[in-house]
TrEMBL record:
The name this protein goes by in its record: Phosphoadenosine phosphosulfate reductase family protein
UniProt xrefs under InterPro entries: PAPS_reduct_dom, Rossmann-like_a/b/a_fold, Sulfate_adenylyltrnsfr_sub2
Gene3D superfamilies with a match to the protein in the record: HUPs
Pfam families tied to this protein: PAPS_reduct (PF01507)
Originating species: Paenibacillus gansuensis
Domain Phosphoadenosine phosphosulphate reductase span(s) in chain numbering: 35-214
Highest rank taxon of the organism: Bacteria
Length: 279
């Protein structure tokens, strides 16, 4: 495709790995390619590289998204953590890329998991990601036997030291030999890409970014445990009722979402709410 860019002109082809990991099958031997999508720019770039870089046929690619607030049609579940724009954005992404979208969720929402455990997730006990994302995907994939699946996810080395140290390829936990004969290979195809390259690639292919980037730097839960104070302050003002509900949850649980050096900090203190002018 023809692209006009602010920086260097690069198509998705230029982000293809020079060599695929030796443990992988030739790409055409996979029955399905799953791209885990959050709605964030990295997930868009991953899908673009799969489609236009590796030239994987569209009918083999599925965009797979895991909601953390559970079934969107179950009105007993408060939509507390997922951005309200994400469902529509994923529909847009699916339409723009002409790729099938699968949306999954766990029976219990993130709020229900938090209440069940009596605590908020943290960087050392990140049960939000494990229960609501990783396990939900693995459970869904384990339904399928006699299949060869390649999972693509959009982690990048630039994001953190932890991510940089993780391998570009591994066998997924849902991989099973023997009777199940289920291959699930997990590749991080944009691991080496930079944020600027990701944004540029999305622009080059005419894909608008999720609106949340106006307020936060990463497209994750609107009240993500990793939000900075400034980000949390912005989301608190965007969703005042949810914010009040979240602060109430802290009181009910006797546990705060944020702590530093072993000392708990209420959400209110974290964003220095008492210093935000009302008018
Ligand atoms: S975005 Fe943040 S809060 Fe949401 S699941 Fe991921 S780490 Fe947990």
């Amino acid at each position: 495709m023809s692209v006009s860019v602010m920086g260097e002109k690069r198509g998705a082809e230029s982000f293809v790995l020079p060599e695929l990991p030796s443990e992988m099958l030739p790409l055409h031997e996979y029955d399905e390619i799953h791209v885990n999508v959050s709605g964030g720019a990295d997930s868009v770039a991953t899908a673009l590289v799969a489609l236009h870089g590796y030239k994987i046929p569209k009918d083999k690619i599925k965009l797979v998204h895991m909601r953390v607030d559970g079934n969107p049609n179950d009105h007993t579940k408060r939509q507390l953590f997922d951005w309200p724009q994400t469902d529509a954005y994923l529909e847009y992404m699916s339409k723009m890329l002409d790729l099938q979208l699968i949306v999954l969720w766990d029976d219990l929402s993130l709020e229900e998991r938090i209440r069940e455990r009596g605590m908020f997730p943290s960087s050392t006990c990140r049960f939000c990601t494990s229960y609501l994302k990783r396990d939900v995907y693995a459970k869904w994939v384990r339904q399928f036997d006699d299949v060869k699946i390649l999972l693509l996810t959009g982690e990048r080395s630039e994001e953190s030291k932890e991510r940089a140290e993780k391998p570009v390829f591994k066998l997924h936990t849902a991989h099973a030999t023997g009777r199940k004969n289920r291959t699930v290979h997990w590749l991080k195809p944009i691991k080496a890409m930079l944020k600027t390259e990701v944004r540029q690639l999305c622009a080059d292919y005419g894909i608008e970014l999720h609106p949340c980037y106006q307020w936060v730097s990463r497209c994750s839960c609107k009240f993500c445990i990793f939000n900075t104070s400034a980000e949390m302050s912005r989301t608190s003002q965007l969703f005042p009722e949810d914010w009040a509900y979240l602060k109430q949850m802290e009181e009910e649980l006797g546990h705060t979402m944020k702590s530093k050096d072993g000392i708990s900090h209420s959400l209110s203190a974290f964003i220095k709410e008492d210093q935000i002018p009302l008018f």
